[in-house]
# Entry
Amino acid sequence: MPDLDALTGRAASVLAYLPWWAESLIVIVVCCAVVMPLHGVAYRSMKRAVASKSLFWRSLVSRTHGPSRLGLIVVAISLASTTVHLSWEVRIALNQILLVAFVTLTGWCCATALHIATVIYLRRFKLDAEDNLLARKHFTQMRILERAAVTLVGLITVSVALMTFEPVRQYGVSLLASAGAAGLILGLAMQPVLSNLVAGIQIAITQPIRIEDAIIVENEWGWVEEITSTYVVVRLWDWRRLVLPLTYFIQKPFQNWTRDGASLIGSVFLYVDHRAPVARMREKLSEIAAATPLWDGKVVNLQVSDAKESTIEVRMLVSARNAPQAWDLRCVIREAMITWLQAEHPEALPRHRTEWVGAEEPPLRRADGQRIAA
# Structure
């Protein structure tokens, strides 16, 4: 121990002859050279310690490798700075920077832990399943709540970092009082952003839309691809993207085809002649539906829904497992039914009838059959 004290004393006496910036640079280099190997040993020890733990702890240790190393370097530099000959102002500024850096690294680690917990929780759900209602529900809730939690962690981190400054702590009340008018103006200016944030929390709780919901919005059909803190991205059927604010889905009506389940009933309308064999068409519809894997085997029905002067309206209902399959099934049934009518029952196709009237009108007769003179 005396040898260590003597070595430290000799090192301090040597550093005393250097300018403060060179002395600080040497201390930083020495701290990094000492901390890096020590952190490597500690990191490997932590990995072995959590090898038998849950996936969360293994991922947390792996993902915080960089932040923990930086945090250890910050602590080492903070302790070693007491041996450097610095002025009071420089020492205060250095300690303030190191403290803010440590608070920032702590917030970084908290946000990483939230992300890991969310990913692990969502691993049990599969969005590519046929009946993915439960998965879409949890994905929507967790993604929105994760963004809200990360935003809250960021605000707390910034607040704690600002509170490390003495003027902020001492004059915080007076600053808030003097900034009342400015805060009111800023609040009015940020009203759209704040309303979208509140709408995002409301959507996460009530869930009028979920990830991969099939919806009709602004006369466009597509899927909910992404829900952020302020807007929703809808992937349209032709691969375009429709971006809408979150408040749109709270304030305006829209159609959600997969609100309570992925299964849908599709409708096909045909306009045929009055002589069409409705009973035979009903049997043919069942045959077509049974022959295609797009039909889920639940609903198949044919009805005459309307009758006009020249045609009758036939409505066919079939069910499918999801919206894309329902669309394809409707097209298959429409094409197959028209082809069958053309081949087997051409008289069922719609036609216009015309009655020709002769040039001479027939003579008028009385009830007893005698002709009435003109």
In short: The beta strands are 214-217, 220-227, 231-236, 241-245, 255-256, 264-272, 295-307, 312-320. The longest strand covers residues 295-307. The longest helix spans residues 88-122.
